[in-house]
Write a structure and sequence with these properties.
Blueprint lengths: L15 E3 H8 L3 H9 L14 E3 H17 L3 H27 L1
Antiparallel strand pairs: 1-2
């Protein structure tokens, strides 16, 4: 039996990451993060690339996009579409739960 421990940091929506921090957290090059921004997957705050900051939600979206690429072999545009559809399904499920409680 191995004595391995996982360590990490829990990020919330209020936590902000720079472009370099986000790319390190996702174990990708900054160019890949920029592609996600160009495709509309991520929405950084700040004027130009050197001043971009990303929320904890961006970290979640970027990691999910990376897994979609690695596991399913889809491109960034496909990952963007999948993320949007996954969020829409989540929203619809939440709405359905509210309706079920009311009814």
């Amino acid at each position: 039996m191995s004595n391995e421990f996982l360590t990490g940091i829990v990020l919330d929506e209020e936590c902000l990451l720079t472009l370099d921090e986000l790319s390190r957290a996702c174990a990708v090059q900054t160019d890949w993060i920029i592609e996600l921004v160009d495709e509309g997957v991520l929405e950084p705050r700040g004027g130009d690339v050197s001043h971009w900051v990303f929320s904890g939600i961006s970290l979640h979206r970027a990691r999910t996009a990376r897994r979609l690429q690695q596991d399913l072999g889809i491109n960034i545009a496909g990952a963007a579409l999948a993320l949007d559809l996954m969020e829409e399904i989540e929203d619809l499920r939440a709405h359905l739960c509210v309706l079920e409680r009311e009814g």
